[in-house]
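Need tokens for this chain, all 458 residues.
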Amino acid sequence: MKTFTRYIRQLLLRFSLTRLTTFGHQSDIPERNILTGYLVYMTVGFGLLMLPWSTHIHTGWLDNLFTAVSAVSTTGLATVDIPGTYTIFGQFVILLLIQIGGVGYMTMSSYIIYRLTHHSDQYSDKVVSTSIAIPYGMKLHDLVNNIIHFTLIFEVLGFISFFFALRHAGVEMAGWNSVFLSISSFCTAGFSPFSDSLCRFSDNIAINLTVILLSYAGAMGFIFITDMSHKLSRRNYSISFTSKVIMLTTGILTIGGTVILALSPTAATGQGWGQRLLLSFFQTMSAMTTVGYNTMDLSTLRVGPILVFSLIMFVGASPSGTGGGVKCTSVSAVWGFIVSKLGLKNDVTFLGRIIPPYRVYTALTSVITYGTMIFFGSVILSYSEPFKLSQILFEATSAIGTVGLSTGITPELSAIGKMVIIVLMYVGRVGVITFGSALVINTRKKRFTTHTKSDLAA
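Here are the structure tokens for all 458 residues:
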């Protein structure tokens, strides 16, 4: 056994980590490896879903491609009924793609190969650090370990909670459905083993609470989780500025969205205020964490709430988390920039802290690029689809924010519409800056840019 283990380690050390995870492709630009890697896994997932034993009924190739991209991007939008279309094998493929996309294929690969070989190469570390934000003072290996360990802990706890709740509710196949919901919730994917998402459990406190806790944990990010765990275990530990921004932004979006939806005339009509607040809070949480579950029919919403939720989905989750969106830290930096310029200040500040110029530039680039992608996606959809502009904007924002909420138009999209959403989901998963950098920069410029950033950080 020791000889076999030693042979595996030597075999793995002969190959670059990035070559293994991207099936042979390696670029001098880490961003291109990220794009290629996710594209490869989406393609492999698509191929597996095309197998005859993956589906109950004949499913078109475009719908299978849509599902594979939606799973890897942890979006949750679907053009077909997932439990009615896919077999247990097909659902297992979807769940595996969700796990790869939620944690990040580079993070999972780095963890597994380091455990086997006890080595990591410099270029692989650069690719991983490009795909996830690393807190100041934390080693990359420690962050990767934390991500995998926290993921396992939360998903196991989520499975246990879901299992007892679903068994108590009399749901068949409680074990499999609990595994599916736990992984999908923590990875903020929004795929459900039930045809109505979670509408049948709209008044089930245990299931609602479990989804909420898992989604917040995944979306608020591993930086925040690590900070909170240190705060609980160390008396004099002070949480980071990033965690403070995450808590403030999350609180504002949650309270604001809940109040607006609860006061909307079409929200939970006929329900008491307790149920109304629960439904409103859950939908707000779903949009902000980008988990994408719904416990009410979103097609009944008026234009006002739709636009508000589009804004919440645009902001999205937090850095180093499983959620999508432009990220709350980027929005806080842009807000600080606007306030500082209006106040004729030279330094950009937020919560009394000066934000480094390169972080402000990155945030502005991210927000502008996200907005541009949504605009062009909505324009194309407005020509190809017969739906209202508010529904189209909601769908496009949900796709690039990898949210998965919909007003019900996803299954009715044309072939062109489905392709537009596929592209938006793909860009949303890899990140607009990573996507743009992979297309624009060359090797020489990338080296210069990386060197400049390291000088600024120092």
